[in-house]
Amino acid sequence: MPVVPPQPRLVNLANVLTVFRLALVPVVVACLLAGGTFWRVAAFVAFGIASVTDLLDGRIARSRGLITDFGKIADPIADKALTGAALVTMSYLGWLPWWVTAVILAREVAVTALRFWVIRYGVIAASRGGKLKTLLQVLAISLYMLPGIPQWLRAVVMAAATSGCTGPCRSSRPAGTSRSTALSSVA
After folding, report:
1. What is the C-alpha separation between 74 and 81, in angstroms, rounded?
2. CB 26 within 8 A of CB 127
3. Are 109 and 51 in contact (CB under 8 A)?
4. Distance from the first to the final alpha carbon of the chain
5. Is the pLDDT of residue 155 over 90?
6. What one-character-per-residue DSSP string does 114-143 give?
7. Treating both helix axes as pointing N-terminal to C-terminal, what angle do 13-34 and 37-64 enclose, rounded to 10 degrees?
8. Is the whole-model pTM more than 0.70?
């Protein structure tokens, strides 16, 4: 009979970080709604801390064997709650057009629905394109939170985050072709 490894405990460092990220969502929203330079910077700090927990929880879960069913479900919910709440609040305040928030949230809901649909077969790991998209979204949201950032810079980074180029761009070279070969054929 094969030996089944023990399941990780529900309360572990990775899941605690995920729950902490969820707890920071109302803090970010409250700081944004409070208004003023101090509260915008406070929202930025809380959002930054929450974003770092997003980076850490998955790495910790994978490296220490702490992947749980709770984490598989709660992690993407925490991610969408954080970015979604920040985007909706900034659109409500008039800092960000509603259509930008709608485009990003529609994509996030679709990707999350797909992940939940296939979760019974295993976890879909984030691609490099997905990680780049997340990084651009975090950077763009952060730029909108901070006072004094030029509007053109905010708009350029947000456009990159919403462009959808992070997925198709990574597969633009023929299969079996190295990146250097593909680049030299363009030059």
Report:
1. 10
2. no
3. no
4. 58
5. yes
6. HHHHHGGG---PPPHHHHHHHHHHHHHHHH
7. 170
8. yes
